[in-house]
Design goal:
Length: about 350
């Protein structure tokens, strides 16, 4: 299995933004030193849920401080970006990292983020489709390209620099719908699965993905799925749950309030990536190394070869996170890499 570190850099009440950034960057660099395969950042705006407003800028910074981890966005909210600017920013980060960027893209779900930028959340699906069309156009063109669409129009644009990886960094799409999975299967794009669902729900998502691959004439070996999972390790299950359950539940509650905030009579943010009704024990990886290995084995049995670990949750102290990472690297990572 491939193991990544997933980060949003939350900003809990009473904490300092500079401290939170310093801790997060330390953890990301530590993941590189420990032998993790990737580091992923998610984009958020206008709240304490996450203060990574420009994930590609932060990843470019990490490119200079790391040596081997791949650096991914999980996700960049495409309707909130002009696709030409996004193409240039992604290519710049790809150049600075020597071709280590993975581009995870999604439609977004928090109404406050769309209102803040003056974007109608009801248009997010159409905007996502057109922005993706623009990205594919400019990354495949040999010279300047033009586009006239509903949301974006331009003439003779040739975004620079060009990506280090040709024709562009690997694309990953946050989706589990039949249509989205069919698109990923047909285009050989990766799939980013939501982190807060039970294994039963994840199993259904992977079955739909397998059907999409079969419809595209591909076998299961073509599957490329990354699953995010809240993760915390300690010497015993009891200690791990005692340390992480409270911070994670606080994180989940705040995330759901953001999804619903101010939506009375307006378009909602859509489905949350977190299933608040799920038994946490079926949707997280909290426990001893033995328990975590067992949990990863269950994920691997579903055909998922890549997992990104969400370890920096809520107010969980930095020292506890670093200890959890060290224990994972020592006791679990060698086993996971052989799965």
């Amino acid at each position: 299995m491939q193991i990544g570190l997933f980060h949003s850099i939350q900003w809990p009440e009473g904490s300092d933004q500079s401290d939170r950034y310093a801790q997060a960057l330390t953890q990301a660099c530590h993941a590189d030193a420990l032998g993790f395969d990737s580091v992923w950042l998610t984009e958020h705006h206008f709240s304490r849920h996450g203060i990574v407003s420009d994930s590609l800028m932060v990843l470019a910074h990490l490119a200079a401080r790391t040596s081997h981890v791949r650096l991914g966005t999980a996700v960049s909210v495409l309707p909130l970006h002009h696709p030409l600017r996004f193409a240039e920013a992604a290519a710049t980060a790809d150049q600075l990292s020597g071709g280590r960027i993975d581009l995870g893209i999604g439609r977004g779900y928090q109404p406050g983020e769309f209102r803040g930028f003056g974007v109608d959340i009801a248009e997010k699906n159409a905007m996502f489709d057109e922005a993706l069309e623009v990205l594919r156009l400019v990354w495949s063109a040999d010279g300047p390209a033009s586009h006239s669409g509903t949301y974006f129009s331009f003439e003779d644009a040739a975004p620079q620099p060009r990506p280090f990886q040709q024709p562009h960094p690997p694309l990953w799409v946050a989706t589990d719908s039949p249509g989205g999975l069919a698109m990923c299967a047909a285009q050989d794009w990766g799939v980013l699965l939501p982190q807060g669902t039970s294994l039963t729900v994840t199993e259904g998502q992977m079955k739909r993905y397998a059907d999409a691959l079969a419809d595209a004439g591909c076998g299961p070996e073509r599957a490329r799925a990354y699953l995010a999972r809240a993760t915390h390790l300690a010497p015993t299950d009891a200690q791990a749950w005692a340390e992480a359950e409270g911070p994670y539940r606080e994180f989940l509650g705040y995330a759901d309030r953001l999804r619903q905030r101010g939506t009375e009579g307006r378009e909602t943010g859509g489905r949350s990536p977190f299933d608040l009704d799920a038994d946490l024990r079926s949707s997280v990886l909290f426990g001893s190394p033995e328990t975590i290995i067992s949990g990863l084995e269950a994920i691997r049995e579903l055909g998922i070869e890549s997992v990104m670990l969400f370890m920096h949750m809520g107010g969980l102290p930095h020292e506890k996170i670093m200890a959890s990472m060290d224990l994972f690297a020592r006791e679990v990572l060698p086993v996971a890499h052989e799965m």
